[in-house]
Structure formats: C-alpha cells, structure tokens
Amino acid sequence: MRILFLHPNFPAQFRHVAAAIARDNRHQVVFGTTRRDGQLPGVYKAIYKSNRTARPETHHYVRTLENAVLQGQAVYRMAEQLKARGFVPDMVYGHSGWGPTLFCKDIFPNAQLLCYFEWFYHAHGSDADFDPTDPVDADAEARIRIKNTPILTDLYSCDRGLSPTYWQRRQFPSEYQSKISVCHDGIDTNFFSPKLGAKLVLPQLNLDLSHVDELVTYIGRGMEPYRGFPQFIEAVALLQERCPNCHVVIVGEDRVAYGKRLPDGKTYKQVMLEKFPLDLSKVHFTGRLPYHEYLQVLQASTAHVYLTRPFVLSWSMLEAMSTGCLVVGSNTAPVTEVIRDGVNGLLADFFSPAEIADRIQEALTDRDRMTEIRSKARETVLAHYDLAKLLPQHLQWIQQDLNRDQVALWTGTQSKPVTPLPTPQVDEIEVDEKPATLPEPAAIAPGKRSRANPKPLVNPETNGFVVTSGTRSHEKHTKR
C-alpha cells in the first residue's frame, strides 16, 4: 500500500498509525506536513508551505477559508513533485479543517480519501455560546458558519471519515454522520501507568516536591477560558485557605491555544494572578515538559483537574486516567462520555470554582474511597481507549476497502525513469523547488481518467519541499 498522510503538524493524531504502517516493508508511507522537526522510523516527510497567508483586506468571515485554500494549493504543488518521483498513493489520509485535503481528489482521483474529522463548528449548542457572559452575536454566527466551508468540502469529497469520540461525531451534520466512524487515537497504557508512592522531583526546574503529601495538577497547551483556567485559579485560591499544605503544579504555556486573546494584550495567567494573590511558593508553573517529566507529574498527582467547554476532548484527560489519577473533571459533554461521577472520577460545574474546590478537597481527604475510583479510571482506559486494542482497529478501518493489488509493495516502476524516494538510511534530500517533468502515467483502469499531467493551480513557486526519513526526535508534551 502507498499512503500519504496530511497534517500541518507532525505527527499529530497520525503518530501511531503512520509508524505502524511503516513498520511493514510492503508499504510506502509519506507524511505531508509544514513541520520540519520530528521524525518517525520509515516515514518519509514531505514539507509543504503556503506562499502567503490570508490578506488583511480579505473579509474576516472568509480568512479561514482563504488560508485553507492556500494550504490546499501548497499540498497540490507538493503532490505534483511526489508524482514526478513516481509516488502515487492508493490512499490519502488527512486532517480536515486546515485545508490540506481540499484538492486531493483532483490530483489523485483514483486514491481513496480518508479524513480525520475532529470538530465541526456551531454558533449555538457547543463551545461558542457556552459562556453566558460572552454571547454570540450575528457577526460571529455568520463567521462560524463560513468557517465550516473547508470541512463541508471534505465531507462531500471523502470516501470515509473518522472521529475520535461519539461526542465529536455528533457535531457534524446528520446527513454526513454515516460516513464517519468512531475510533479514538488510543492511549499508550504501558507508558501511562501508575507508580505507587511516586513523588515529583524535576531537577531541570529545580523543583523538589518529594516532601509534599497533597499535590493538585493541571495540564494544558495554554492557559485560557476554553480549558477552564480562570475557574481553576479561583478554585486554587479557595483551596489554599482550606488546605494550607497543598501544592499545585500547572503544566503548559502562558498563551491562548483555543479561543480569544484578551484585548489589552495581557495573558489570562497575568489577569488571574492579579485578581487572586496566591501563595506562589506552593503554586508551580512548569511550562512545557518532555513526555517523561509530564508522566512524573501525573504519577505523583493526588488530584488532577481537567476542565473544558463542550469542545474537543484532550488526550491528557485519558492519559491521566490511564496513569491512575483521580480526575476532577468538568460536567460537560466531552468529559461525561468517559467519566461517571463517583465511579471513575469526580465531576464539578465548569463555572463553579467553589464546587471545583470542593471536589478537589474531597479527593485530597477521602483517600480510601479515591483508591477504588483511581482503579476504575485506569480500567476505563484499558477497556475503551487502549492503544494496543484501538490501533489494530484503526489499521483495519484504513485498509477495509483496498483490493489485493493496492496493498502490493510499491517499487517506483513507471514507463519512464523517475527519481526514487530515498531509502530509510537516507536522512534528508532536497527536492527541486519546481516540479520535474511528470512521467507518463501507469496503466489506468477503464473509465478512470489520467491525471499524470495536471494543470497546476498556481505557479509552482518555492514551497520548501523536503523528503526525510529516520528516527523520531525527542518531543515535548503538547495537549490538544
């Protein structure tokens, strides 16, 4: 099988599935991305780059669409160069929303198009209007509607789609949901496993909490209202009055990953610490952490807080549960698909810092009862989100419609010589900035039109195309 993965980030949701396919030498795996850093064994990286971003004069409703089209064009140029080197995929599997999959059916009409459908935007009933203090006006309603345009194009064009949770699939139009299967990306339960008696010591940060008996943890890509950061800080202020020996560790960057930034340029961390003068000798901001240190935080946690609007469910909540954390989660739809209050976690009102503090205090003080809940949390992940179980299902879903000929080993054979992709021993090769002359097409099934010499969407300007192969580099933890 020849498969092309597409995602502006690398390796993102395709980390495990791309690596698994590449381990079988019958398959050729190429990953188109904007990211030069990071590698996966046996996976060839193809770097694409948009020539520009949406222009300032573009109507603000369609800037997201313009950026998606520009990214789709960049992928088209990249795909032309892949074809010039003899790589024509049997399947393209890309993340829908940013635009990389928009024109795949034009340049690879005979390839199956699979799309990873993570989110469909709504002005009402999910994340956008969740906060009653921040209502959605008519302008926002229109902008959100248009924001779905590239996703709707993919829903129409794709052969099949996949969403990681049932909650996320339900956000998509009902007329397309039959195209979308549900399979989570999977949690590595061997890595994210409990460690009895673990204490947190991070020498690189000069942080030694080995003496701490009550440790509350919070993890996010950023610090923003979408993930309940303001409510959490207010809950910590209450907790410091009730539990003076409690320490808090906050992992993440001082930025907004989802939602709106503050108009005055301040960060939510700055605003909340000005509003609630915490005892910062017991509140520790770590920034981003490497995966092994992130694991140490989870293993040492007495209570792990995960708050989210009705939005995409983060890997970190399931990773915390797999590690045996006592999760205090928001009583919102993505969380309640997984957590049952008092069974495998504790739930609290997203907008109630007092209730969040109450549930944290409950977790800190009722240790005997929490032991059973921690155990049930890990059992939940082992039963429903374990990578070892889900990865084979994901692979089966990918290949379910391929015929025997399509899974044969790709040899690069064409009617004219082509420049081959590098062998796995080659670290990196630069590819011509302008596409080479395309080879003559291979035999095409009756009724299928040839696209061996497609007209470019735009002039094939420099797009930074690189093919690489090697081992995965060290990554820092990023929560979705």
Q: Total helix count? A: 14
* Classification by helices and strands: alpha/beta
Mean pLDDT: 87
Strand order of the largest sheet: 7-6-5-4-1-2-3-17-16
Write down the CATH topology of the largest domain.
Answer: Rossmann fold
How would you portray this structure in words?
The chain has 480 residues and is α/β, with parallel strands linked by helices. The chain has two domains: 265 residues, Glycogen Phosphorylase B (Rossmann fold, 3-Layer(aba) Sandwich), CATH 3.40.50.2000; 185 residues, Rossmann fold (3-Layer(aba) Sandwich). Helix content is 30%, strand content 14%. The protein is built from 14 helices and 17 strands. The strands form three sheets. The protein has a nine-stranded mixed sheet, sandwiched between helices. Strands 12-11-10-13-14-15 form a six-stranded parallel sheet, with helices on both faces. Strand 10, helix 7 and strand 11 form a beta-alpha-beta unit. Helix 7 crosses helix 12 and helix 10 packs across helix 13. The longest helix is centred in the N-terminal third of the chain and has 22 residues.
Briefly characterize the structure.
With 480 residues, the chain is α/β, with parallel strands linked by helices.
Q: What topology does this entry show?
A:
Blueprint: E1 2-6, H1 15-22, E2 28-33, E3 43-47, H2 63-84, E4 91-95, H3 104-107, E5 112-116, H4 138-147, H5 149-157, E6 160-163, H6 166-170, E7 180-182, E8 201-202, E9 207-208, E10 215-219, H7 229-242, E11 247-251, H8 268-275, E12 283-287, H9 291-300, E13 303-306, H10 315-322, E14 327-330, H11 333-336, E15 346-348, H12 353-365, H13 367-384, H14 387-399, E16 428-430, E17 466-468
Parallel strand pairs: 1-2, 1-4, 2-3, 4-5, 5-6, 6-7, 10-11, 10-13, 11-12, 13-14, 14-15
Antiparallel strand pairs: 3-17, 8-9, 16-17
Helix pairs in contact: 7-8, 7-12, 10-13
